[in-house]
Design goal:
Layout: E1 10-11, E2 23-25, E3 30-31, E4 44-53, E5 57-65, E6 69-78, E7 83-92, E8 109-112, E9 116-123, E10 126-133, E11 142-149, E12 156-162, E13 165-186, E14 189-193, E15 199-208, E16 212-224, E17 227-235, E18 247-250, E19 253-256, E20 260-261, E21 273-277, E22 282-298, E23 301-317, E24 323-339
Parallel strand pairs: 1-3
Antiparallel strand pairs: 2-12, 4-5, 4-15, 5-6, 6-7, 8-9, 9-10, 10-11, 11-13, 12-13, 13-14, 13-15, 16-17, 16-24, 17-18, 18-19, 20-21, 21-22, 22-23, 23-24
Length: about 350
């Protein structure tokens, strides 16, 4: 059944390490337990990625690992000047030492190194993101303290298998539309984020992945007509026969989409694009503004990503047929090719 919605509470994995249920939900109804994974330990990947975006700046905070390599990173992107300020600390052979939470809905995460400390606190109705560098050797001085308000109960949760191995899987939770407030001191400047103009995003991922793959992922949040509107689109994340990860969010409610497609590389990454769904419920013209290209090489890791920020114009159709007119909405679409 296409776009199977999971409503039954269960463990994520059977005792043999395969997915107990495949599909999507709007709340975390399946329990992730790292000890139940039967794939080789070097195939396990876990990350918490937060992004805070307004019309001028994008802040990204990451704590994650691919078992044999890990990363703490903070990146501030100036969308007007098209400059990026970044501090990154790579971790060799972290495996399970980071103690990543088993749920995106509860459990704090804090990592302290000699030159940098980062913490993600989860509480009822919100989240707090903090990062500070303690040495000039860490690069750009950083002092970040942000709060994300999480008013909505519905979000995107998806459990996806991989064809390469029945014990490979991707369990992902994305939370949109979190108004953001706070201060970022980085790159010799102080920047304030206000909830009227800034939204936070969480990309929480756990799983056992094949070594090589590629994906396309797009996401955005905005105020439209005084309501919180957001979207998530993507493909390439394993076998999506049970469900896609395409979804709309409006005024606290999730609305499921089927297939959505864009060829981000066609004509060059900075050329205008059309994003289209197979059911006509997500039709957008995408005008790129900035290509944040990154490469990560460490040990066996060789990852490359074009994250394209741009403006969207078009329409989105909710489950009840309501049409949301989208005008000059700032969002991103990325194309990643990974060997990790």
């Amino acid at each position: 059944m296409r776009n199977h919605r999971i409503t039954t509470f269960s463990d994520l994995l059977y005792p043999n390490g395969t997915l107990m249920q495949k599909g999507y939900s709007t709340k975390a109804v399946m329990r992730y337990n790292r000890k139940q994974i039967k794939a080789p330990p070097w195939r396990i990947k876990e990350w918490d990625f937060y992004q805070v975006l307004n019309d001028d700046f994008c802040l990204q905070l990451t704590i994650g690992h691919t078992s044999y390599a890990g990363e703490l990173s903070v990146m501030l992107i100036d969308l007007n000047e098209k400059k990026t300020y970044a501090v990154r600390e790579m971790l060799a052979l972290p495996f399970n030492r980071l103690r990543m939470p088993a749920s995106a809905e509860h459990g704090d995460l804090a990592v302290r190194r000699k030159n940098i400390e980062m913490s993600f606190e989860v509480y009822k109705g919100g989240r707090r993101l903090r990062c500070r560098t303690r040495s000039r050797r860490a690069g750009q001085p950083v002092d970040i303290d942000l709060e994300l308000c999480q008013p909505d109960l519905e979000s995107l949760v998806i459990a996806t298998p991989f064809d390469e191995n029945p014990r490979y899987f991707y369990y992902n939770h994305k939370i949109n539309c979190m108004p953001a407030s706070g201060t970022v001191n980085m790159g010799g400047r102080t920047i304030g984020f206000e909830p009227e103009t800034a939204f936070g995003l969480l990309d929480w991922g756990r799983g056992a992945w094949p070594f090589s793959h590629e994906w396309v992922w797009g996401n955005g949040s905005a105020w439209i007509g005084g309501k919180r509107f957001g979207f998530n689109i993507g493909f390439g994340f394993g076998n999506t026969e049970a469900a896609t990860e395409n979804m709309l969010f409006y005024d606290g409610n999730a609305h499921k989409l089927n297939e959505v497609y864009v060829d981000l590389a066609a004509g060059g990454y900075m050329s205008p694009k059309t994003i289209a769904s197979d059911d006509g419920r997500f039709e957008m013209d995408f005008e790129p503004l900035y290509d944040r290209y990154t490469e990560t090489k460490m040990l066996f890791v060789d990852n490359r990503c074009h994250q394209i920020f741009g403006r969207l114009n078009g329409k989105a159709v909710l489950d009840d047929g309501t049409v949301i007119e989208v005008k000059d909405m700032l969002a991103f679409v990325e194309h990643a090719v990974n060997h990790w």
